[in-house]
Amino acid sequence: MHVMQIIPTGKNHKEIIKKKEKQLFFTICINQMESDWSGRWNHVRKFVERGGPFAHPDFEPSTEAIGFLQDVCKILVIGAGGLGCELLKDLALMGFRNLDVIDMDTIDVSNLNRQFLFRHKDVGKPKAEVAAEFINKRVPGCKVTPHYCQIQDYDESFYRKFHIVVCGLDSIVARRWINGMLISLLKYEDGELDQSTLIPMVDGGTEGFKGNARVILTGITACIECTLDLYPPQINFPLCTIAHTPRLPEHCIEYVRILLWPKEEPFGADVTIDGDEPDHINWIMDKSIERANEFKISGITYRLTQGVVKRIIPAVASTNAVIAAACSTEVFKLATSCCLPLNNYMNFSDIDGIYTYAFEAMKKEDCIACTNIPKALKFSDGDKLQDILTYLIDSAEYQMKSPGITTSLNGKNKTLYMQTVKSIEEKTRENLKKTLNELGLRDGQEVYIADPTTPNTITFKLTLGCNME
Amino acid sequence: MADTKKVVIDKKNKYDRQLRLWGDHGQSALESACVCLVNVSAVGTEILKNMILPGVGSFTIVDGNKVSGEDVGNNFFLTKDSIGESRAKAATELLSELNDDVSGDFVEESAEKLIRANPDFFSRFTLVIATNLCERELLELDSLLSKRNIPLLVCRSYGFIGYMRIVIKEHTVIESHPDSAHEDLRLDHPFPRLIDYCNSLDLDSMDQKDHSHTPWIVIVYKYLQKWKESVCIRTNKEGFPLDEENFDEAVKSVNTALVPSSMPSEVRKLFEDPCCKNLDSESSSFWILVRAVKEFVDNEGKELLPLRGTIPDMTADSTRYIQLQHVYHGQADDDVGIVTEKVRRIEQSIAKEEPVNTLNMPPPNYENCISDHDIKLFCKNAAFLRVFRSRGLAEEYNSKTANLQEIAQHLGDEDNDDDDFVFYVLLRGVDKFHEEYNRYPGVYEDQVEADVTMLKTSVQKILHDWGLNPTSIKDDYIHEICRYGAAELHTISSFIGGAAAQEAIKIITKQFIPFNNTYIYNAMKQSSLTVQL
């Protein structure tokens, strides 16, 4: 039987996985071949049954390898959108049969120009379910299991089941969360990583004509948090520009969205803006035009209004196809060892010709996610709790969303601030204005941060100087 | 009436995410295009899929083969039930189902027969995409298409290697959408309107609010005028500069804002092109516009292109930002006006040369009247114009006319150990092998080893023909290619399928810049290479 060999450095850990998968393998040989036809796997077989000079050093060509791919290997696809649809098709045609797909979204008309498993009649239905049904029908023997939910709805026991996780996400927070989850599954013995606990993550992303694909060997190569600075923090227009000195049509639209909508409540008191509701967009557009006219600004259209309100990122079938294909090739390499995987990041753009650039993203020595070193937080004891929060949100290194802080004082756990639960937020809000000194926090004190960007609690060590620099 | 309106809205919603990339005019070009796919392969159907989804006008598949079990194995648009049926028909059915707006058609005939029996069949297409043709068929198709001035895109997926080749006589791009371009502000060559406007503002006498909301373009202009005695920065009582965001912006932008205004060399080259110099009634509107802009640059423009007319956003009050915007817009409009006059004069002069002979004179050539909108678009993009001409396949495949300089450069250098160009040579090698033995190397399980030696000979023959060291290809690569046995992995086809579709869309919409002219993808390293052959 062929096993998964994932470490490019050539560490032999196949025995571990072999043991783990042995039982499974016996049950499969029986189910195999029912849905196959002559010649079906001729293409794939050449890669797993023949050796080659560029294969992984541990690669053992074998006629049983395809059985491993088809019946043992379990792959999780996160996202059933532009990349997800492509990933499912690609993996199914490469011989993978045990696929799970998670997506919390339903189908929108604007998906149809690229998410090719959906038709007009499917608008409004869950993406994961429609995509799974389509693949299962089109590719005999392939079993895609849909999960119409958020990734945060599942815990370790779910994620531990998979051999490889592939992401086709448009959300950085979700990427960071799954990255943290896979890292939390790693087990170390005497400081050595137990490689049977490693679940590689293959991640793809696209934006217009640009995209990237990367392979993360959790705990071994650079993870999402190691390279967080590759995602520039979202840029917002300054509020004073929006409120007082608009110059661009976008400023006028933001004025209506942020300031006018809550004031005028055009569709009722508790109605928030729905970017897909034409009545909402039309109202915002009309009001934006009024404001634009006042300042002699031109160029407001329905398309621009919707783009600004929904923060739409352009997307096209071709880029998604390219990036998903690169990711799926990497999954195939990881699962079969028939070729060394990408080490470890590839950028793609086809605005001016076609450009690809593969490079090794470096692991960050003190990464908050994939190293166990508590990070230092340097503040002065006169700083307020709010200052720590602001820092965690604003710094390019952490880019947190709504951090909660707890600590342990005199052997008791104490919640300093938590935003996500309303009653606790109200109780702890006072603390934000208190200085670290008033809160009883001393130099060297450990604080624990929870944030939507990770399923794990992150430990920080406070380093308190006397005065602020 | 209400129904058609609904269809339009639906289409706008469906295509919203791509309309933001190529606009309504790009979309309408795509929707009027007819593409032809020669041979159903995994890469072929993937390309069509990625063109049908965004709404290409129509497609036609030419394929005389029947579906095999192997075909279905790597192709999402063939099913088990279709084994034994026409490949063209089966693929057309499943592809058509992707998008109701697109019409699909097929011809159950081999390309080879069609080329000979009905060469005019291909005249109707905007673009032809060819996969899985042997060298001889490919050259025949190429010669047929180049006579009819129809672009050809050749695509291939072979093991871990992808290959594409564009053959197009001339492709002109006005909207190349550069990713990062310097602003065209002319601070080094200020035009009268800009001078007047900047002079109308007196930084010293302004109240604080106005001072800190003066657009930085004005600040940089003032500094340039008062190079030595800088009196612009305001200080507080202690003599420290005040914290003014607009001044920070001015400092940050000064390096890029003061890049000297000049003629881009790419555009300068176009002015020297024979197509620009020798206009006649056959000249395309692109070249008429190039000529008009050249005349502008030579005269009124004083060696500079028409002003782009846009400014970046910057800290400023609304009134003065809009005023400054008008200063630039106004100058750009004036420049467009001058170019328009020149265009009209050129149109007249080349129309005059048309013989006015018989009674059944053809109606005035509508194409010769370039719209005001197009002239404006052209002037705005004048710095980013591109012309692309690729050599034909016949030249590339003839060792006497091949681009040996480029080839030698990639193969000759010892340091270029990991140059992906080696895969181009190997693909030529497997074709030579196929020509001799009528099968690809490594197709049969029991012949892989023997084929390695034979393929080596084929590759050496090619290198020898080019006059290059016949042993310059490492054995490892020969082994790897034989391992593939012409297998077409779905994911490699899907990668090329995505990339090729986008190149096709670039050609059709005349927006963005296609690669020139050969592209090699190496999925082992996720690397790629573009070479001109």
From TrEMBL, chain A:
Protein family membership: Belongs to the ubiquitin-activating E1 family. UBA3 subfamily.
Q: Which InterPro entries match?
A: E2-binding, ThiF/MoeB/HesA, ThiF_NAD_FAD-bd, Ub_act_enz_dom_a_sf, Uba3_N, Ubiquitin-activating_enz, UBQ-activ_enz_E1_Cys_AS
**What's this chain's function?**
Catalytic subunit of the dimeric E1 enzyme, which activates NEDD8.
Q: What would be an example GO MF term here?
A: ATP binding
Q: Which UniProt keywords apply?
A: ATP-binding, Ligase, Nucleotide-binding, Ubl conjugation pathway
Q: In what residue span(s) does the E2 binding domain sit?
A: 377-465
Known EC number(s)?
6.2.1.64
Q: Which reaction does it catalyse?
A: ATP + [NEDD8 protein] + [E1 NEDD8-activating enzyme]-L-cysteine = AMP + diphosphate + [E1 NEDD8-activating enzyme]-S-[NEDD8 protein]-yl-L-cysteine
CDD domains (UniProt xref): Uba3_RUB (cd01488)
Q: Could you state one GO biological process linked to this protein?
A: protein neddylation
What SMART domains does the entry give?
Answer: E2_bind
Gene Ontology cellular-component terms for this entry are: cytoplasm; nucleus
- The leader peptide range reads none
Which ranges of the sequence are coiled-coil?
Answer: none
Q: What class of enzyme is it?
A: ligase
SUPFAM superfamilies from the UniProt entry: Activating enzymes of the ubiquitin-like proteins
UniProt xrefs under Pfam families: E2_bind, ThiF
Q: Which organism is it from?
A: Mytilus coruscus
Q: In which pathway does it act?
A: Protein modification; protein neddylation
Active site residues according to the UniProt entry: C240
What is this protein identified as?
NEDD8-activating enzyme E1 catalytic subunit
From TrEMBL, chain B:
Write out the entry's keywords from A to Z.
Answer: Ubl conjugation pathway
Q: Which CDD domains match?
A: APPBP1_RUB (cd01493)
GO MF terms on file?
Answer: NEDD8 activating enzyme activity
Task: Give any Gene Ontology cellular component.
Answer: cytoplasm
Q: Which GO terms describe its biological process?
A: protein neddylation
> Which pathway does the protein contribute to?
Protein modification; protein neddylation
SUPFAM superfamilies reported in the protein's UniProt record: Activating enzymes of the ubiquitin-like proteins (SSF69572)
The record's listing under Gene3D superfamilies reads: NAD(P)-binding Rossmann-like Domain (3.40.50.720)
InterPro entries xref list: APP-BP1, ThiF/MoeB/HesA, ThiF_NAD_FAD-bd, Ubiquitin-activating_enz
Q: Which domain of life is it from?
A: Eukaryota
Q: Where does the THIF-type NAD/FAD binding fold domain lie?
A: 15-527
Transmembrane annotation, as ranges: none
What PANTHER family would the database entry show? Answer: NEDD8-ACTIVATING ENZYME E1 REGULATORY SUBUNIT, UBIQUITIN-ACTIVATING ENZYME E1
Family to which this protein belongs = Belongs to the ubiquitin-activating E1 family. ULA1 subfamily.
Q: State what protein this is by name.
A: NEDD8-activating enzyme E1 regulatory subunit
